[in-house]
Specification:
There is one protein chain. This protein has 249 residues and is α+β, with helices and mostly antiparallel strands. It folds into two domains: 95 residues, Glutaredoxin (3-Layer(aba) Sandwich), CATH 3.40.30.10; 111 residues, Glutathione S-transferase Yfyf (Class Pi), Chain A, domain 2. Strands 1-3-2-4-5 form a five-stranded mixed β-sheet, with helices on one face. Helix 5 runs antiparallel to helix 6 and helix 5 runs parallel beside helix 7. The longest helix has 23 residues. The two termini are 20 Å apart. It binds glutathione (GSH). Glutathione binds next to helix 5. Glutathione (GSH) binds next to helix 5.
Length: 249
């Protein structure tokens, strides 16, 4: 898919031809969704390039030249390729404004803490949930899943309790990169791994559910959902994806 606003002659605007565009290497319902939401939120012209996970395209030398770790997403920018979801989100916020407190804003330190918490604490725990084979031998797997569920549950309790401190930057009127990062993770816990999601009871975290519902009400969510086949309420009532191209796993 190509998202460009064209001028009256049908050409992309100057910034898209020269300074921009971004190229988002994505797979449907992957962490690239966080970046798609942020790009849409700032109305930034971008192209998407499918990483075909059904053939493990993320492992090819061509993709690893962009992302040495072979993970989705990678974002080609006018300053070179950026990878790691949080790094890409912060890059976009710093470059285009909005989405996150800027340098000098009193809220920046505290919100950086939560951005790194999402990236260093919650997201890695989800990776253990979704890719147990990368972290444990088969015998240990069911024990690991149980403790992983308990651990993630406690992380979500922590975040739920911290919501008042995140006021203005999570579930607020203006979308932030924290919304863009957290809401897909809430979705994934409800859907993945297939057949192993019974532990996740969103009603235990009503504040986080409200953040998800707020995200669902934003027009950018409709655009992202149509592009990736995520259904009508992808964050507050997730349904398995039905993407127009590619595969989530
Ligand atoms: N720390 C990475 C994690 C990204 C990640 O886990 N990507 C998943 C898709 S959502 C992936 O590439 N999985 C393929 C694999 O682990 O082989 C980031 O924040 O970008």
């Amino acid at each position: 898919m190509v998202v460009f606003r064209l001028d009256r002659q049908g050409r992309p605007p100057d910034d898209a031809r020269m300074d921009l565009p971004y190229r988002l290497h994505y797979a449907p319902d992957n962490a690239s969704l966080c970046l798609r939401l942020a790009l849409l939120a700032r109305d930034l012209p971008f192209r998407t390039v499918l990483v075909d996970r059904s053939i493990r395209a993320q492992d090819t030398p061509a993709y690893r030249a962009l992302h040495p770790g072979g993970l989705v997403p990678a974002l080609e920018t006018p300053d070179g390729t950026v990878f790691e979801t949080a790094a890409c989100l912060l890059y976009l916020a710093d470059r285009h404004g909005g989405l996150f407190p800027g340098p000098g804003d009193a809220a920046r330190g505290s919100m950086l803490s939560w951005l790194f918490w999402l990236s260093n604490t919650l997201h890695p725990a989800l990776r253990v949930l979704f890719y147990p084979e990368q972290y444990s031998g088969p015998a240990a797997r069911s024990d690991m899943a149980r403790s992983n569920h308990e651990q993630i549950g406690r992380m979500l309790d922590t975040l739920e309790a911290a919501l008042p401190r995140l006021e203005g930057w999570l579930g607020a009127e203006e979308v932030s990169i924290l919304d863009c990062y957290l809401c897909p993770m809430l979705r994934w816990m409800a859907l993945y791994p297939e057949g192993g999601t019974g532990w996740y009871q969103p009603a235990r975290w009503p504040g986080l559910q409200a953040v998800a519902a707020r995200m669902d009400a934003r027009p950018i969510t409709g655009v992202a959902s149509r592009a990736e086949g995520l259904g009508p309420l992808p964050f507050s009532r997730p349904e398995p994806p039905d993407p127009p191209e590619g595969s989530p796993i």
